[in-house]
Amino acid sequence: MTELKGFNLARVEKRVDWTGELFSLRLSGAPLSFKAGQFTKLALLDDDGTTISRAYSVVNAPSEQFDWLEFLIVANPQGQLTPKLQKLNTGDTVYVGQSAHGDLTHDTIPKQANDLWLLSTGTGIGPFLSLLDDINLLPHSDNIVLAHGVRYEKDLVYQYLIEQLQNRYEGRLRYLPIVSRETLNGKLNGRIPELISSGALVDRAGLQFSKDNSFVMMCGNPEMIKDTSPVLQQLGLEKYRAQTGGNIIYERYW
Ligand SMILES: Cc1cc2nc3c(=O)[nH]c(=O)nc-3n(C[C@H](O)[C@H](O)[C@H](O)COP(=O)(O)OP(=O)(O)OC[C@H]3O[C@@H](n4cnc5c(N)ncnc54)[C@H](O)[C@@H]3O)c2cc1C
Ligand SMILES: NC(=O)c1ccc[n+]([C@@H]2O[C@H](COP(=O)([O-])OP(=O)(O)OC[C@H]3O[C@@H](n4cnc5c(N)ncnc54)[C@H](OP(=O)(O)O)[C@@H]3O)[C@@H](O)[C@H]2O)c1
User: Fold this and answer.
1) CATH class of the structural domain 7-97
2) Where does the FAD-binding FR-type domain lie (predicted)?
3) What residue owns the CA closest to ligand 2's atom 4?
4) Which CATH architecture has domain 106-252?
5) Ligand 2 centre from 214 Cα, in Å?
6) How far apart are CA 160 and CA 163, in angstroms?
């Protein structure tokens, strides 16, 4: 296949189809130096040879043992790249960026952040799974809340990994699945900002948001981030800036 500047060619090791739209790709053979929580680019060539590249978060943590990279992707039928990625099979090739970026990383979390809130929607859970799975740099916070907002129960991916992580964190990690388009026993129903405003999220987490103890990382749907930020600010939390610190950092997926 043609060489592409800034990319390595990777082999698809496997594709896991979680639902009709949601899938994971495990890729090998493309060396990438990255921190847990970062993203790189995936690319394919269009029929006329034009490069189509988009950003994707790595779901696994960096490891000296394994050279593969895993990505969680939702296919947008009208999108340019995702329908092509969804058709890849074991043995196919795809371009992977040679550099990684993003601030949803361990070194952004302030030392005094006793309560770490990881708020995600859809595929935005990916970087948080990577962050939590990095055995060399486990977040030091006493309490970690992983909230995952999805439309339907079937979109609650990586349950086996989340169970493993909960065991590894020995009670420090609380997982809060949130489903918006179905009502399910034992699960929060609705959207993240409304569940924070109503108190339902903190009740379920058994923790309060506080300016002194909380650090909030958000990832996924930009509307969730837009609606959640003012709710957190009303509770006294401030947007994080590298120079001055703060409580809220996020990554928008579109
Ligand atoms: C930093 C960063 C990290 C990202 N990581 C991931 C990831 O790990 N997994 C992933 O699936 N996507 C991720 N994205 C989105 C991804 O880069 C593409 O935009 C997306 O896959 C759509 O590409 P496309 O060519 O199929 O659609 P396009 O032709 O580019 O159409 C884009 C439209 O698709 C919708 N859209 C884009 N991304 C999503 C999404 N994740 N969930 C719901 N709707 C979406 C929006 O309406 C957007 O306007 C990330 C984006 C950024 C900026
Ligand atoms: N998941 C599916 O079954 C499905 C089916 C067909 C196509 N798709 C494709 O996949 C794309 C992404 O779907 P997705 O389900 O992964 O992601 P999504 O549309 O971002 O939905 C994920 C979660 O974010 C919530 N959300 C949306 N806006 C919000 C806001 N302003 N504040 C707080 N929460 C908000 C949604 O709630 P609401 O439910 O209230 O919006 C849902 O619980 C779609 O655009 C579509 O192309 C997905």
Assistant:
1) mainly beta
2) 5-107
3) 21
4) 3-Layer(aba) Sandwich (3.40)
5) 26
6) 5
Distance between Cα 152 and ligand 2 center (Å): 9
| Residue closest by Cα to atom 50 of ligand 1 | 253
Q: Which two tokens stand for residue 237?
A: 């939390």
Other Cβ atoms less than 10 A from the Cβ of 20: the count is 9
What DSSP designation does 123 have? G
Query: What are the tokens at 24?
Result: 């994971």
Q: What does the domain layout of the chain look like in residue ranges?
A: 7-97, 106-252
Centre of ligand 1 from the C-alpha of residue 253, in Å: 6
Mean pLDDT by 10 residues, the chain (254 residues): 92 98 97 97 95 98 92 97 98 98 95 95 98 88 97 98 96 97 94 98 97 97 98 97 93 97
Rounded to an integer, what distance in angstroms lies between the CA atom of residue 195 and that of residue 178? 9
